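Exercise 7 asks you to align residues with C-alpha cells for two separate proteins.
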Amino acid sequence: MRLLLTRPREDSEALAEVLRLRGHQTLIEPLLSIAYEIGVPVDLDGVQAILVTSANGARALAAIDERRELPVFAVGDASARAAIEAGFATVESARGDVESLADLVTRSLDATAGAVLHVAGSQVAGDLAGRLEAAGLTCRRAVLYHAEKAKSLSLRAVRALREGEVDGVLFFSPRTAVTFVSVARSAGLDGACAGLRAFCLSPAVAEKARVLVWRQVCIATRPDQESLLASIDETTHRSDTGA
C-alpha cells in the first residue's frame, strides 16, 4: 500500500522504515514541525517520576536536562523508545492513551512519595493532570516544546494525491487530522480524498478526519502504533484478496 505519513519528520522517518519492512511504500509529508523550548528551567525537586505523552516530550527533556535517574512513564511504545534512546534507564509504557497512562501511574506510584512531572507541548489532549490529582497525586506540567502546523501541502504531495499515487493517509493525533483537512481543502483535494483510506489512531482522531469524505476510515483497535500498523496490514490483505 502507498501511504502518506503526516507525523513530524523524525517520527515519520522511523515509521517509514517500519512500513517498508512490512511491504508498504511511503511519502513523508509532515503536517506538524516541532520546536523545543531551549533554556526553559526544569524543576525536578520533589519529583518521583516523569510522564511523557509523546516522543517529542522525551526528546525535549533530554535536550535541556542531563539527569536520567528518574523513572519515566510513557503513554505508548514510541514515546517509551524515545525515552530509552535518550538515556533514561527505567522506562515503562502504558501502551495506550492518556487514560491508560493515568491508570498505570496511579497503580505504580505512592502519592506520598512526591510529585510527577508531565513533560508536554503547548497543547495537550485529555486531562492527565485531573485524573492523577483525583487519585491523590500532585502533577506538574513542563511545557518544553510546541508544534507548528503546516500552512499548505507540498507540491509533491498535492500531485501524488491528485494523480492517485497514494492509497491511504495516516493520522496519529486529532490536531494532525484537523491540519490535513485544512490544507487538503485549500489545495482542492476533497474529491481525491474520497478515493483514499484514512488510518486513524483512535476514534477521537477519526472524528476530525471524517470532516472529509473518505473511501474508508480505519481505526486502530488500540491507540498505539502497532495496532494502527495491524489495521493497515489487514486492510491491505483484504484488498489483495478481494475480501
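Second protein for Exercise 7:
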Amino acid sequence: MKPSLKLTSEERRAAIIQAVRRAFAEKGFHGTTTRELAKEAGVSEALLFKHFPNKEALYSAMMQASCQEKNPEMYERLRALEPSTSTLVLLVHLMVTHLVGHKPDGYEDSLQTRLILRSLAEDGDFARLFLQRIVGPILAKLEDSIQAAVAEGEALEGPGQPRLRARFANALAAMIRFHLTPEEPAMDYGVPLEKLVEQVVWFTLRGIGLKDEAIKRYYNPKTLALFAG
C-alpha cells in the first residue's frame, strides 16, 4: 500500500478552505458548527483551530479564496481593451456565456453560485465581496463602453444611466444562472443553452440601448468565443 504524502501546513490550510465551501453553501455561516466544518474537511476540531483561530477566520479565508480570478490572463486582456461598441458587445457576450452558457455539472460546479445565493439570504458579505472583486472591474469597463457606444452614435443616450445599464445587464444574466442551478432547472426556457445565450445577449444589448444595426455588425458568437480561448 502506497503511503499517503503528508501535507504541508499551507497545503492543509488550502485543503480545509476548499472542503468547507460545501458546508457554508448548504447552511451558511450561522447555521454551520465548527464540528461540522472539521468533519467536512476530514480533520479534527483541534487541527481546524490550529490553522484558523475561529469560525470567522475560516469563513473569511474561504471568501477570499473563492473570490480570486479563475482566469487572470483573460481578465487582463479585458482590462486592456479600449472602451468601444465592439468591446461592449464582447463583454456582454462573455458575461452571458459564463453565467448562462453552461449547465452546472454536479454540485461542485455550482458551489460558487450556491455560496452567493446563501450569502444573499443572510448578511450578503460573500456576495458583496464577489461582486466587488470579480464583477466590479468588468462592470466598470462595460459602463465605459456604453458611454463610448453612445458617443459613437451606435447606442441610445437614454433614459437609463450607463452605470445602471451595466448593472442591469449583469443582474439579468445572474438571475438566469440562478434558475439553471438546480439539477432540474427552476425555469424551462425551452431552447438549447447555445440558443439561450444568443437570445439573452440580443435582449441585453437592446436593453442597454445598442441599435440593431450595431448588434448585427459586432455580434458574431463564434468569433467572440475565440477571445476566451
